Amino acid sequence: MGAVERRINLVEGFPVTIRHLDGRNVRDDRTRMPQYRFRRALSDRANVAAWKEGRFQPTYPGFEVDVLGADGRRVHGATLLGTLRREFA
Predict the structure, then answer these.
(1) How many helices (H) and strands (E) does the chain have?
(2) In total, how many domains does the chain have?
(3) What is the mean pLDDT of residues 9-36?
(4) For the chain, which has fewer Cβ within 10 Å, the N-terminal or C-terminal residue?
(5) pLDDT value at position 9?
(6) Above 80 in pLDDT, residue 29?
(7) pTM assigned to the model
């Protein structure tokens, strides 16, 4: 897990995997990606798609992100962040 992925996990409370548009995993320590600038988690009432559109995509254009559940699998965009965070509590 790279530094940006760790920071997102720390702030938001769920793990992510950042990918290039062609699907390759991004090594953020090598691509000099900007740091995740948010200090507070997005509301539990928001869903994964809203987090991607409002936080990830504006900060990391040209990249994709997979939000992962406790089982390590990608979660659906309609999943509420509060539900997702409870998996890790």
Answers:
(1) 5, 2
(2) 1
(3) 88
(4) C
(5) 98
(6) no
(7) 0.92
Number of CB atoms found within 10 A of residue 84's CB: 22
How far apart CA 1 and CA 18 sit, in angstroms, is 9
**Rounded to whole angstroms, how far apart are CA atoms 26 and 5?**
10
Give long-range contacts, CB 8 A cutoff, 24+ apart: 35-44: 35/3, 35/4, 35/7, 36/4, 36/7, 36/8, 36/11, 38/11, 38/12, 39/11, 40/11, 41/11, 41/12, 41/13, 41/81, 41/85, 42/12, 42/81, 43/81, 44/80, 44/81, 44/82, 44/85
How high is the pLDDT of residue 1?
A: 65
**Does 30 or 58 have the greater pLDDT score?**
58
